[in-house]
Amino acid sequence: MVANRGTAWISGRMMRNLTRPFTLLCLLAATPATADDITVFAAASLQTALDRVAADWAADTGNRVIAVYDGSGRLARQIAQGAPADIFISASPDWMDSLEIDKTIVPSSRSDILGNALVLIAPAGATIADPLADLMARLGDGKLAMGNVDTVPAGVYGKAALTSLGLWEAVAPHVAQTDSVRAALALVSLGEASMGIVYASDAMADKGVQVIAIFPDESHPPIIYPAALTGDAGPAAQAFLDYLSTPLARAVFVAEGFAGAPK
Predict the structure, then answer these.
(1) What pLDDT, on a 0 to 100 scale, did the predictor assign at position 199?
(2) CA-to-CA distance for 217 and 173, rounded, in angstroms?
(3) Residue 4's pLDDT is what?
(4) Engineered SS bond to 201: which of 12, 188, 247, 257, CB 3.0-4.6 Å?
């Protein structure tokens, strides 16, 4: 059994369509944990793939995975403040580094498990040719949805890519920043934003969007997903962490648009 704690979204007009998560303590109280339950705090971009992997593992072992999805920065801060997570999977090494410095994770358990690509998306059916060549003209008065450029890894990567391509200064006033990459994805899927910057795996997870450009790898830092145990994790958590790097799990991640971790 997999218990999905959901993803945090932005406020405003989208509140009519999406609800913000309950507080962490209320969420955990709503589904009491047992000795073999594993709580995984994971980057929002992992939701579709990790739910599948966790369900497969739970079916094989009988142990339940309780998944909490949100922006990596928000999750890291919650763990640092004592939130009861067993495993943390970040979409950026930086947030894992911060927890390692704070001695919140087990350094010897840390490994880079996945990679991804950064893409520009538009609502499904859009006809836009070579959008990166003249992004501002094609964006017009619309909004470019992307994760918070200071705390959400996809937003950090997105700003770096736009800066590298000489587009950031012109685009910045049109950016709609969100609490997670999945919130940016939803804005485009719902027609609230003309374009968005997300991961390739996110675009595959939502039929309401289409990829219109892929950012060059050299335009942004490598997209790396490190995973690690927290100090309170038990044997079942170690077993699930090990499972994430098995061929069975990797096949699911690849099918959902992820890549192997960059070397």
Answers:
(1) 98
(2) 25
(3) 54
(4) 257
Q: What is the pLDDT of residues 167-181, one digit of tens each?
A: 999 999 999 999 999
Amino acid of residue 170: A
CA angle 232, 5, 257 (to 5 degrees): 95
**Six token digits for residue 15:** 């509140």
Rounded to whole angstroms, the Cα distance separating 244 from 1 reads 17
User: pLDDT, tens digit, for every residue of 35-56?
Assistant: 479 999 999 999 999 999 999 9
Question: Could you tell me the pTM of the whole model?
Answer: 0.84
**Which residue from 238, 203, 219 is spatially nearest to 49, judged by alpha carbons?**
203
Task: Give the tokens for residue 223.
Answer: 């997209």
Give the chain's length. Answer: 263
- Taking the C-alpha atoms of residue 247 and residue 103, their distance in angstroms, rounded to an integer, is 30
Average pLDDT over the chain, rounded to an integer: 87
